[in-house]
Amino acid sequence: MPLIPLRPLLETVDKYHYAQGAFNVNAVAQAKAAIEVHEMFRSAAILQGADLANGFMGGRTDFQNATLEDKKIGAKNIANAVKKYAEDSPIPVVLHLDHGKNFDSCKAAIEGGYTSVMIDGSSLPFDENVELTREVVKYAHERGVSVEGELGVLAGVEDHVFSATSTYTNPLKAVEFFKKTGVDALAISYGTMHGASKGKNVKLRKEIVIAIKECLMHEGIFGVLVSHGSSTVPKYIVDEINALGGNIQNAHGISVDELKAAIPCGIGKINVDTDIRLAVTRNMKEFFHNYPEKRNSPSIGGVYKLLEEKKDQFDPRAFLPPIMDTVMYGNVPDEDVAALVAVIEKGVKEAIGTLIVQFGSFGKAPLVEQASLDEMAERYKKM
To answer: Which residues take part in binding Zn(2+) 2 (predicted)?
Structure first.
């Protein structure tokens, strides 16, 4: 079926009191695997491409330096892949821009085929954040595209997002932000962190979530709260990477129990990226360990070389440049690439499948309205 905007899925989440995992993808194979595992669990799907992931999918392997043109190309590549595998899928699929850096990044994603965007103005003063977010909301809603904003600052590092310290979201400011911008969802800071090093035994400030949701209900405002930096960083995967020669240190995620406890408080969308990166990297390392003859493969030997050179990294984008045609377009030229793609897909499914169950979205796909962008645009006009 065609991709849907985020809003109908948010309304379902809010009505039935569960959370929808939102999972970042950086390659055609990852998008395919993510949709397939959601189908298996009869869950709707939110696939996310981060702002710089669009740069990577546009062929910029040094994606930290991606230009707007790179991002435009990459947005179309990701959207084409997601549309391809969603077209015959029985589940609703949303393609969401994660951490849009500015208005132009959001516009590029929408033009490329994204059905939902996040504009991250959290580093700006409140009034400037409101102004920027409102601008994106106006542009996006006219096209039926949903919008997520952010208020409060998360510590940690992930793509272009960086902060040494966090600033918790003020519930009163959050309500004001919803009123002034018209966003559909809001990412808040309540104790999560970007990246793999979140600290041991993190306790989430669930009272912040409760306060915001209570205030929104009193004001009659619809809004779903989003948990960023919520990867669980499974210890068993980190241990397996290190046993295979990796050097991943001080990697601690958010407890699944903490995340699950935040869902009834009002968290409806939970972003996960690091778990997928770890599982895919572990699988690639394991593949070359089990099949040493593949280390000298003309097509994938370069991937092995990068895995060996960058033992302290776990982002697959650090290792995949030798097969960028496969990453960007899904082309599989030979059996060696096919074998590597297969283990990448298995890693994605392992990381996502467990969280679909934990967050409670399994079996909920039939509850989500199949609204088109045009239909949503008409609805937004009446809001």
So the answer is: 120, 150
Return the structure tokens found at 271: 């972003």
147-185 pLDDT tens trace: 999 998 765 444 444 444 567 899 999 999 999 999 999
Domains in the chain: how many in total?
Answer: 1
Question: So what's the pLDDT on residue 131?
Answer: 98
Domain that holds residue 149: 6-274+355-368
Structure tokens at 370: 């199949």
Catalytic residue among 51, 98, 184, 336: 98
Instruction: Please provide the distance, in angstroms rounded to a whole number, between the alpha carbons at the two ends of the chain.
Output: 26
What Cα–Cα distance (Å) separates residue 322 from each residue in 59, 82, 327, 335? 11, 22, 9, 15
CATH number at residue 224: 3.20.20.70
Is residue 192 within 8 Å of residue 255, measured between CB atoms?
Answer: no
Q: What is the pLDDT of residue 165?
A: 54
Cβ atoms of residues 218 and 253 within 8 Å:
no
Rounded to whole angstroms, the Cα distance separating 142 from 355 reads 33
Q: Is 98 a catalytic residue?
A: yes
| pLDDT single digits (tens) 210-259 | 999 999 999 999 999 999 989 999 999 999 999 999 999 988 899 999 99
Helix spans in 19-92 (H): 28-40, 51-57, 68-86
Per-residue tokens: 297: 């493969």
Neighbours of 241 (CB within 10 A): 23
Pairing verdict, β 155-158 and 161-163: antiparallel
**Distance between CA atoms of 115 and 196, rounded to whole angstroms?**
28
The ranges of the chain with pLDDT < 50 are 156-164
CA-wise closest residue to 91 among 39, 19, 168, 153? 39
Residue 321 is assigned to a structural domain of this protein: no
- The answer to whether residue 247 sits within a structural domain is yes
Tell me whether strands 155-158 and 146-151 are parallel, antiparallel or unpaired.
unpaired
Name the strand (E) or helix (H) holding 119. Answer: strand 116-119
**How far is Cα 73 from Cα 144, in angstroms, rounded to an integer?**
22
